[in-house]
Design goal:
The protein is mainly β and 184 residues long. The chain has one domain: Immunoglobulin-like. It has one helix and ten strands. Strand 2 and strand 3 form a beta hairpin. It is globular.
Length: 184
Amino acid sequence: MAGIGTAAAIAVAGVMGAFGARHEPVPVLAPASRIETGQWLLRPLKAYVTAEKNVYGAPLKSGGKALVLELEMTNRTAKSTKDYFEVLQPNPAIIDPATKPFIVLTRDSTLSPELHPGMPERMAYIWQLSDGAAPPASLDLTIIHKTYKQRDNLYGLPGWFNPTPIGVLMLPVGSGPDTADIQP
């Protein structure tokens, strides 16, 4: 009897999992909008490709091109943080997921700075494009939202958890840093 009950439970769980696994498509976000991700408030400014060797001080390989996204980021938390590495996930067809961006504060070229609460800062995400890669016409990014929990289930400590895609942002890619900002 126990074997039949176990088999039935596994079958029901499998069927429920198969039908429950449907995911709704994530919405397309407006390029000129402010995007709230839990921890961060983002405002995309511009995306461009450049062949400059030293973009905001990022150590790029010479002779290659870089894809640059400039945006305004505001830390919405109560303390300084640099937990912004996973908030933007580029389309793997454009940028290899193993390629991590250099993230730079544009006003003084500080690499991976902690951003203070409530202070909007202009940041640049810089990805080195592989040699000979054609520059993309648009930069497609999945935006990730996290939820604040006063106490997590494992350690009982506060933090930002449950990363979830909230939308896809598609920005036109210009040529060079003089590309105009996206208008709100």
